[in-house]
Design brief:
globular; Methyltransferase domain-containing protein; 6 helices; SAM-dependent_MTases_sf; Rossmann fold; 6-stranded mixed sheet
Length: about 170
């Protein structure tokens, strides 16, 4: 169906994107250019990224964007205040994904990068509530697992416990 992509997460996210975003719509992807925003461009989407500004402090790119769609792919968990970011999006369409909170693992925190950490680890209902409170109507959502090729209890739990959650929402 699609070219080979390195992770299940990319395949699932791209499939969801194809379902709701046409290639003639412009996308503002929250976060700096990353492997997935490059994939979106390779697939023919018109993508602009934010420039690495702290979106908790500086939402000017979001507030001034005329994009048709905003993608917030695994960025909300890094924000201290995702409410304000979501509230200030001007686009009428949003695709947002998060890693779900896992009851058998602690919140992610990089040992080498002071910015690469999760302030929030959401359950699906928490993201849904946040979207509703910020004026978004959820149209569709999907969850999937993230199995690893390791042996042990936690790898086994990753085969059956959803790790990622993606939502397509429209402005109410």
């Amino acid at each position: 169906m699609y070219k080979y992509y390195p992770t299940k997460r990319y395949k699932e996210t791209l499939s969801f994107l194809h379902k709701y975003v046409s290639k003639n719509e412009t996308i503002l992807d929250l976060g700096i250019e990353n492997p997935f925003s490059k994939i979106m461009k390779e697939e023919g989407y018109q993508v602009e990224n934010t420039s690495g500004e702290d979106l908790d402090e500086d939402r000017s790119t979001i507030e001034n964007s005329n994009s048709d769609v905003v993608t917030a792919l695994e960025i909300a968990e890094h924000l201290l205040n995702p409410y304000t970011v979501l509230k200030n999006i001007r686009s009428k369409k949003l695709i947002i994904s998060i890693p779900l909170r896992l009851w058998f693992a602690t919140a992610y925190r990089s040992k080498t990068d002071k910015w690469d950490r999760h302030y929030h680890e959401f359950e699906d209902w928490q993201l849904d509530w946040l979207l509703e409170k910020t004026g978004w109507k959820i149209i569709d959502s999907k969850k999937w697992t993230n199995p690893t090729k390791k042996i042990g209890i936690r790898p086994l739990l990753r085969y059956i416990t959803p790790r990622y959650y993606i939502v397509y929402a429209e402005r109410k």
